[in-house]
Amino acid sequence: MEQLFFYIFAIIAVAAALAVITVKNPVHSAVSLIVCLIQVAALYVLLKIPFLAAVQVFIYVGAVMVLFLFAVMIIDIGKERLKEQVHGQKKYAIPAVILFFVATGYMVLWGKLTVPTPNDPAPLPGFHIEGIGKFLYTKYIFPFEIVSVLLLVALVGAIVLVMKDKKGNRPKDHTIDEKP
Amino acid sequence: MPSLTHFLMLGLILFSIGVAGVLLRRNIIIVLMSLELIFNAVNINLAAFSYYLQSLNGTIFVIFNITIAAAEVAVGLAILVVVYRQRKTVYLDELHEMRG
Amino acid sequence: MAEAVWLIPILPLFGAIINGLAGNRIGKKAVGFIGCAAVGLSHLILISTFFQLSTLPHLDRSITVAGFEWFASGYFRIDFSLLIDPLSILIGLVVTGVGFLIHIYSLGYMHADKAYWRYFSYLNLFIFFMLLLVLSADYIVMYLGWEGVGLCSYLLIGFWYEKKTASDAGKKAFIVNRVGDVGFILGLFLLFWSLSELGVHSLKFQDVFENAHRLDPGRLTWITLLLFVGAMGKSAQFPLHVWLPDAMEGPTPVSALIHAATMVTAGVYMVARSSVLFTLAPISGEIVAIIGILTAFFAATIALVQNDIKRVLAYSTISQLGYMFAAVGIGAYSAGIFHLISHAFIKGLLFLGAGSVIHALSGDQDMRNMGGLSRHMKITSVTFTIGAIALAGIPPTSGFWSKDEILWELFQNGHYIIAILGLLTVFLTAFYLFRQVFMVFSGKPAPDRQIDRPIDESPRIMTIPLIALAVLALGGGVIGISFFGGESFLHVYLSPVFEPGSLVLPKTHGTTAFVMMAVSMTLGLLGIFLAALFYLEPLRSIAPKFLNPGEIAKRFSGIYQLLCNKYYVDEFYAAAIVRPVKRFCQICLSFDLFVIDGVVNGAGWLTRLVAWLSHQFDSYLVDGAVNSLASVVNIGSRVWGRIQTGYLQNYALVFILGILFIIGGVMLVI
Questions:
Q1: Which residue in C649, C656, C667 is closest to A107 by CB distance?
Q2: Which C residues in the span 604-663 are in contact with A, Cβ-Cβ below 8 Å?
Q3: What ipTM does this complex have?
């Protein structure tokens, strides 16, 4: 039963991902990404960590993708530049990616990278959120604090980067408008 | 329940697609979205390992990963906005002054 | 007396130094005064020394006045010391006396010359060296004087050095003298070496003469012959006579002093001084006499055809020197010295007279342009004629007595051939002398002589020495006249010097002496008569055709040419010696230019080559290494820089490629 759900979620995720990288319109691409992310959240539920699913939906889908859509909205791309999406280096990139996929796939499937694990392991004792909370505040307290600082930095940084002063000019630093 | 290998393969496929997107698309926004794909592929792997090895470390890692990804997107889009204001383009192959 | 004796040579030396260093600043009068005074004072001191010597007993008259040590090396030691004995005093008196008269004469003769001071300086220097030669007590100091008079002769002959003929003549004199000097010094070496073998390490006259009898006669012959070679050079005997005629380029008083009265007699003096050695080596004495008389005859023949007033006198000097050597060669030392003294007076007189004529004619020396000068220059013509008479050997002049003494000694000792040659030369001597007298002083002036200014007698300062010398020429023979039944005053006086070595025993003059005198006088008068026929006007016109000089010259044109060209001796020397030496010099010059300069230039070229090579090395190798390194980096960077495209996605691709590498690596391991 779970296997079926896994396949459903997996296939939709893959299809959405493919759509992300192939469609011309960035908005379509963003929406496809949203679909993919929701599938990943479903997979988290399958893995019996609903907390992660919630976090994924809240943050990724709810915040990040909205941010993306805002950005797409601000950047007024216009239709006529939608041709020639694929980069000039495609003749080197495609074989590289394929090779990468094949090699890593081989490593995963037939390489000795991991220990054999049971298909159906026993679930973790206790409510998993409890465990997460406990870990976050004891074992991983330091990264927790750092990440919060990092978030602050990112917030401030983003604001500073796009800040305009009263006259509408950017604060004075060297601009790349001046051609070298 | 599918085995660990299924999840790992899925992660690999998503990762490859994300890499292909990074390398091949000219639009910065699409590139950033492909980057999100890569992040998610990694998260799937981590979560799968957390389930099959019966450890919460993976889960914690995923939490942090999501946080970082969010921060990175924020900054990345801010940069995108600034670059767009200056150069009026979002295509990566027109943004190559930092060369040599 | 000893200290005063040192002043004799030193005074002229001081005169030379003062005149040489300050002469051009102190004015002509002062220069002349210093020059004459130096010689005059020397003469006075010599006179006083002479009298002091006479107070000594007859056989003890030999004093060595020691001076300072010149150098000492091992056993050998040379002192500067002077020997005072009859011979040296006598010659010294002659040198300073005649020298003084010539200095007085030069005051007038050289008056207009701009190098007046240099002349008197050289002249005094000459007197110094000559006195050193004559008064020395050993052979080395004599050699010093010998060389010194050679040097002064060169300086004075080439006095007017801007004239090429004069400087050439000076060089010739010095070089020919040098050839003789080589013989002299070789003789001295041999003498010293031989004496050292006997244990005598000195060349003092005293030591040499006392030990000479211990030397091997053959060795002695070599020594004396080598010494005579030196005398030949200095006294112009054949074949080293060639410098004397050319030496007439110098001022006439110089010719009078050096080349008539004093320097040329140094050779005779030296042979006389070495009488002991020559007596012990009779073969070399014979050779000396033979060469002497041959030179006398040979020079007289050349004098017959000379047209320059001084050249006649030069060849005459050579001829008379031959007489002197003939005398000392056979051992008649006092006769030779007697002739030396009388010749000094006579030849000095003749040269000064010739100088007077030249001075009056403003430098013209060719006798063919002269004639009839007796009207204008009374004193000169009278004194000159007196000199000619004396030299021709007409009694009662000193020349007659001295020449006759020599001829008598020759005849007496059995050297008949030499005596006959001597008599012939008497005839020739009389002829050429009176040819000169008649050509210059008698008759009408030469038709092509330009008279630009009136010819006057020379100033008194020049004629007074002429008169003085004429008196001496007439009366100076007194000292040498051999009294009947005894020896001459001169012979007696000189006997302490020569007695130990004299071969000639004092003989009484008998009838043979009178016969000789008559014969020589007749020959002399005959010569004068012939000259009168040829050249004296009234007789000339009435002379028979065949006795005309022009005719004879044409008839015997071969001999005439030979005599005119002086037997081609100079030409022979030029071809045999001068030209090969010059060629050798050319070779040396080429050697220097090509080889030595070539080596030096080659070294320079080599340095340039090395510099070029190192430059090439530097620019190609070193710079090349550096540059290639830089270009490697450059190319490498250009190649590798292409990775930095500036495109973000290219960089991402490289990431992936790196990951692939890692995966590949891991796959290999696992």
A1: C667
A2: 647, 649-650, 653, 656-657, 659-660, 663
A3: 0.91
B23 touches chain C (CB under 8 A): yes
Nearest-CA distance B63 → chain C (Å): 26
Structural contact between residues C122 and C128, judged by C-beta atoms closer than 8 angstroms? no
What pLDDT, in 10s, does the model give residues C474-490? 877 766 665 544 456 66
**Which residues in chain B touch residue C652, judged by CB atoms under 8 angstroms apart?**
22-23
End-to-end CA distance of chain A: 63
Residue C2 pLDDT exceeds 90: no
Which tens digits make up the pLDDT trace of B6-43? 899 999 999 999 999 998 888 888 999 999 999 999 99
How far apart (Å, rounded) are the C-alpha atoms in residues C103 and C106? 5
Over residues C364-374, mean pLDDT: 74
pLDDT score of C639: 87
Beta-bridged to residue B25, according to DSSP, are A86
Q: Could you tell me which of C5, C15, C79, C80 has the C-alpha nearest to residue C47?
A: C5
**DSSP sequence for C528-578:** HHHHHHHHSHHHHHHS-GGG-HHHHHHHTHHHHHHHHTGGGHHHHHIIIII
* Dihedral sign from CA coordinates of C442, C445, C446, C450: positive
Calpha distance C670→C661 (Å, rounded): 14
Residue C587 sits at the chain A interface (C-beta within 8 Å): no
| pLDDT at residue C485 in the model | 43
Residue B95 near chain C (CB below 8 Å): yes
Rounded to a whole number, what is the distance in angstroms from the first to the last CA of chain C? 135
How do residues A134-161 score in pLDDT, each as one tens digit? 888 998 999 999 999 999 999 999 999 8
Contacts of B7 in chain A (CB under 8 A): 43, 47
Q: Which amino acid is present at A1?
A: M
Is residue C509 a contact partner of residue C481, using CB atoms and an 8 Å limit?
no
User: Where would I find the H helices in C198-242?
Assistant: 205-211, 217-234
CA dist., res. B50 & res. A49, Å (int): 9
In this structure, are residues A21 and B20 in contact, taking their beta carbons and an 8 Å threshold? yes
Q: What is the pLDDT of residues A93-119, one digit of tens each?
A: 889 999 999 999 988 888 776 667 666
| CA distances (Å), origin A103, targets A41, B12, C626, C629, C667 | 28, 11, 46, 41, 8
Q: Is A89 close to C649, i.e. CB distance below 8 A?
A: yes
Say if residues C427 and C464 touch (Cβ distance below 8 Å): no
C650, A106: Cβ pair inside 8 Å?
A: no
Q: Do A96 and C663 touch (CB under 8 A)?
A: no
CB B27 within 8 A of CB A87: no
- Other Cβ atoms less than 10 A from the Cβ of C500: the count is 14
Interior CA angle at A122 toward A118 and A123, to 5°?
125
Residue with tokens 């006057």: C456
Q: What does the alpha-carbon distance between residue C212 and residue C231 come to, in Å, rounded to a whole number?
A: 20
Q: Which residues of C touch A93 (CB under 8 A)?
A: 649, 653, 656
Long-range contacts of C206-213 (CB under 8 A, 24+ apart): C206/C64, C206/C137, C208/C138, C208/C139, C208/C276, C208/C277, C209/C276, C209/C277, C209/C500, C209/C501, C212/C276, C212/C277, C212/C280, C213/C280
- DSSP 3-state percent helix, strand, coil across chain C (nearest 5): 80, 5, 20
Using DSSP's 3-state secondary structure scheme, residue C32 falls into: helix
